[in-house]
Design a protein that fits this description.
Blueprint: H1 4-11, E1 16-17, E2 26-31, E3 34-35, H2 36-47, E4 51-54, E5 62-63, E6 66-71, H3 72-80, E7 85-88, E8 96-100, H4 105-110, H5 114-120, E9 137-141, H6 142-145, H7 154-157, E10 164-165, E11 180-181, E12 184-185, E13 189-193, E14 196-197, E15 217-223, E16 239-245, E17 253-261, E18 265-273, E19 282-294, E20 301-315, E21 319-333, H8 340-346, E22 368-369, E23 372-385, E24 388-400, E25 403-410, E26 412-416, E27 419-423, E28 439-463, E29 466-487, E30 502-503, E31 507-508, E32 513-531, E33 536-553, E34 564-583, E35 586-597, E36 627-639, E37 642-654, E38 657-663, E39 670-676, E40 680-691, E41 697-710, E42 714-716, E43 719-721, E44 734-743, E45 747-756, E46 759-760, E47 768-769, E48 772-782, E49 790-798, E50 806-811, E51 819-820, E52 827-828, E53 834-837, E54 842-850
Parallel strand pairs: 4-8, 13-16
Antiparallel strand pairs: 1-4, 2-6, 3-5, 7-8, 9-15, 10-11, 11-12, 13-14, 15-16, 17-18, 17-54, 18-19, 19-20, 20-21, 21-22, 21-23, 22-25, 23-24, 24-28, 25-28, 26-27, 28-29, 29-32, 30-31, 32-33, 33-34, 34-35, 35-36, 36-37, 37-40, 38-39, 40-41, 41-44, 42-43, 44-45, 45-48, 46-47, 48-49, 49-54, 50-53, ...
Helix pairs in contact: 1-2, 2-3
């Protein structure tokens, strides 16, 4: 190979640099952000591959950094993404060829930017991204994301991927979402954003609408089975979602967009990219947005303010740093989740009431979710030479409320915590008091916050065919939640600035006054070996987590072990991954991995107490153990005329934890009971394929078949329910998606169609929701350039056909109908599950411009 100096010089003259290349080889890359000549020089050193550059002068064109173990061609494509350069497929036997993309005449005339050209080169219109890692991964690129509705969330975007059951609740939502992947429910799915754990650290609820605007999403990845050994999650039993932010651009740019549509929905967005500041290697962007919408069912509205920002800096010695920041303030009415009976009776009209009457807990003025979030991360990558590198990330993520709910509190003979009261203090003078009514209509203000901070360190040493990595993760998390109840007058009015309800001479009425604290230390060691000139990869590692979690429940009359609980858990999680590549087009992989899930929320350790009975509304787990999963996958990938992945999977779960969620009587707040359902087994097959653009058209298809069965009869109120052999809740047997994308540089469009089979909603399989089909359409056009302004219009149609359906479960139960214990024959009355109502037909129009 020629010297670095020669390479940099010759690239300016459309030069040729040639050497023998390991066909389809995989290497560890640590390429910093920089100019194209600098990056190509490092690429050739680290890959041993030759490069022919056939392009005009690109000395000042900058590329983003590339880090990690990957295929040489994939690394080069990632390196050049976002530039006017592309990797040609010719002469692959000896070297890579880099050429300039040629824009279509129409695109040149309209000033189409490079990002649009990159979209046209995406597989399946950006609905599938090529991977070589020996595990099943599905991804969405920015090319697909930017064609979707501007109010899309991560959950609504990934509904086309195999194994994913998810749907949007409306044109705009700011609350946490429900999702299933291969039968795993939301608390069992790890979620990370830019390497930060992005879920509530105690309940594992995700607030993805608060993480990032869709305009700023770079890529969204779903690992359906094997979780990344270095991922900072402790609830990812068998699936993980990760998302990245779109990095600052090389050139200064302002992007503005305005959207409007159904149900009074609108969104305004602006992003400013600085480009490289001087020759400092520093680039930055900041964006802000405001969105609002009416509640499409029931009364109320939704508002959200959001900020994203990032600063990147390239250092010497192939190192770089990034600072990422986000902020959200959101207000919305409460979505009410119907039982099957309520759905059959009210349909999509089930929601909050606009007019108040005495005792109406469903009045919109009493129910709201005000979700706030703020996060920050400092990411650093350092390369020390001799194959040594270090990745360091410090982060902090905070979510907070408050939420409000309509309640009916007993005027007499109720409870403050576990202590009974004779009457509410000064009850005759309370607003809304009626001596003929035993309960006082009130609003519960549930004030809560969670704070998760941590540090991850990953060191790697690459020597010849071996890469050894060591990871340490420290996490500190705390949370608090308290309740105050305020009386509601005859007009439905109340004030949080007034005095809350008390009894027994000043005791606050409350069912929950919790504090939580958790510390976690996690160590991981991983060794990856590459043989046969890069064809065979064997990767083995183990992660060991040690967690301490403690809760207190500070309520009157709650003492001893009911007041405080401390749990310590140690979980080892080994994994083995093997990959063999016959050539760059064909790869097979097999893996055996493990994952775990620490028991979620206060209800796993302590009880909450009813103000009506003084009894526990939920019971802590009698056998506190983490959920544990062993997964095996066998997969085949093809990347040639099209891109495809087929994988068979099997997993076993022990101490499978299901959270039964139900509404508290006379209230819109919910009660959560964690159930240890014992063992669970599943096997299935999933497939995904996408085509390269052909006559500007790209096709995508995915599907999954899965069979699940519970392995135990669950213990229930001193007996057992016959759940053994039943199917898992929220686990459809069949699901699939189709996608069609068109992009000729001027016109673009995307159509998707999803099918989801029926799903059980109880452990006894005595209630379910039917299968459903939904479809979305996006169409748009690049408008003629006006001076420096490059405008674009887009129309999004969500849920074509306005199909009204239940998309998934909000709260599971053990049984919906009366069932009998298998030991004593005792009758157990049913408890009704609740469901998520999918979004109606929505039209959103967007006009945007870059300048």
């Amino acid at each position: 190979m020629r010297s670095v100096k020669t390479i940099s010089t010759l690239t300016l003259l459309s030069s040729t640099v040639t050497c023998n290349m390991a066909f389809g080889a995989t290497h560890m890359f640590n390429i910093p952000a920089g100019t194209v000549p600098e990056a190509l020089s490092v690429f050739q050193k680290q890959s041993g591959s030759g490069v022919i550059a056939k392009a005009k002068d690109f000395r000042n064109v900058r590329v983003s950094s590339v880090h990690g173990m990957m295929d040489d061609q994939v690394a080069l494509q990632k390196l050049l993404s976002g530039t006017s350069l592309q990797v040609s497929r010719q002469n692959q036997g000896s070297h890579f060829v880099i050429v300039e993309r040629k824009l279509p005449r129409e695109a040149r005339a309209s000033g189409e930017n490079v990002d649009v050209v990159e979209r046209r080169k995406s597989d399946g219109g950006g609905m599938m991204v090529r991977h070589t890692t020996p595990r099943t991964v599905s991804s969405l690129s920015h090319a697909y994301i930017e064609m979707q509705s501007p109010t899309s969330t991560i959950e609504s975007l990934i509904q086309t991927l195999p194994g994913v059951v998810s749907a949007s609740e409306g044109p705009l939502t700011t609350s946490f979402s429900t999702i299933h992947i291969r039968g795993m429910s939301q608390p069992e799915i790890g979620v990370t954003f830019e390497g930060m754990p992005a879920a509530n650290p105690f309940t594992y609820s995700t607030y993805t609408p608060s993480l990032v605007d869709s305009e700023n999403m770079g890529q969204v990845n779903v690992m359906q089975g094997a979780v990344d050994i270095n991922s900072p999650t402790y609830n990812a039993t068998g699936a993980e979602i990760s998302a990245t932010i779109r990095r600052p651009t090389d050139r200064q740019n302002i992007h503005v967009a305005g959207s409007g549509g159904s149900y009074g929905t609108n969104k305004d967005f602006i992003r400013y990219d600085t480009g490289e500041i001087g020759n400092s290697g520093v680039r930055a962007f900041a964006s802000g947005s405001y969105a609002r919408s009416d509640m499409w069912r029931g009364d109320g509205n939704i508002r959200k303010w959001h900020v994203d920002a990032a600063v990147t800096k390239s250092w010497a010695d192939h190192s770089d740093s990034e600072v990422i920041f986000g902020f959200t303030k959101a207000q919305q009415g409460e979505w009410l989740y119907p039982s099957l009976a309520n759905w059959n009776k009210y349909g999509v009209d089930y929601g909050l009431n606009k007019q108040y009457y005495n005792g109406d807990t469903h009045y919109s003025g009493l129910n709201s979710k005000n979700t706030g979030a703020i996060y920050g991360a400092l990411k650093n990558h350092f390369t020390f030479g001799h194959g040594l590198s270090l990745d360091v990330e410090a982060y902090s993520v905070e979510f907070h409320g408050p939420y409000t709910y309509g309640e009916t509190v007993p005027v007499s003979n109720g409870y403050a915590g576990a202590e009974k009261y004779k009457h509410l203090d000064n009850y005759k003078d309370l607003p809304g008091y009626d001596p003929a009514v035993s309960k006082l209509t009130s609003v519960e203000v549930s004030d809560w916050y969670t704070l998760s901070s941590g540090l991850t360190l990953t060191g790697r040493w690459k020597h010849k065919f071996n890469t050894l990595s060591l990871t340490y993760w420290y996490s500190y998390a705390q949370e608090a939640a308290s309740q105050n109840f305020y009386p509601v007058n005859g007009k439905g009015e109340w004030s949080a600035h007034g005095a809350p309800l008390t009894a027994n001479g000043g005791q606050l009425i409350s069912e929950d006054n919790e504090n939580g604290l958790q510390q976690l230390n996690s160590f991981a060691v991983d060794d990856k070996m590459v043989f046969l000139n890069g064809r065979l990869t064997i990767d083995g590692g183990i992660r060991m987590a040690m967690a301490n979690r403690q809760y207190t429940q500070d309520l009157p009359g709650v003492t001893g072990s009911n007041y405080k609980s401390i749990k310590n858990v140690f979980v080892p999680a080994p994994q083995v991954l093997i990959s063999y590549r016959f050539n760059p087009q064909h790869q097979i992989y097999v893996n055996g991995t493990t994952g775990y899930h620490l028991p979620a929320s206060l209800s796993s350790q302590l009880s909450s107490y009813s103000y009506s009975t003084g009894k526990a509304t939920s019971l802590p787990m009698s056998d506190y153990k983490p959920e544990y999963m062993i997964t095996e996958e066998v997969g085949y990938r093809y990347s040639g005329l099209l891109t495809a992945n087929v994988a068979g999977f099997h997993y076993n779960v022990t101490n499978h934890q299901v959270s039964a969620e139900s509404y508290e009587p006379g209230s819109t707040s919910t009660i959560s009971q964690l159930i240890n359902a014992g063992g669970m087994e599943a096997y299935g097959i999933q497939a995904e394929l996408a085509t390269h653009p052909w006559h500007h058209l790209s096709f995508y298809a995915s599907g999954q078949y899965m069979h699940t069965k519970n392995g135990n009869n669950i213990a229930y109120e001193g007996d057992y329910l016959a759940t053994k052999g039943k199917q898992e809740v929220g686990a459809p047997k069949f699901s699939g998606s189709l996608g069609l994308t068109y992009n000729d540089g001027l016109w673009f469009g995307n159509f998707t169609l999803q099918y989801t089979d029926s799903q059980y909603s109880t452990l006894m399989n005595d209630q379910s929701i039917p299968s459903y089909v939904s479809a979305n359409l996006a169409v748009g056009r690049q408008l003629p350039k006006i001076g420096r302004v490059r405008p674009k219009i887009r129309l999004n149609l969500v849920n074509l056909g306005n199909n009204h359906y239940l998309s998934s479960m909000y709260g599971y139960t053990t049984n919906a109908q009366t069932q009998h214990g298998i030991v004593t024959g005792k009758a157990f009355s049913g408890s009704q599950p609740t469901y998520v109502i999918a979004s109606p037909f929505v039209v959103m129009a967007t006009i945007s411009a870059d300048f």
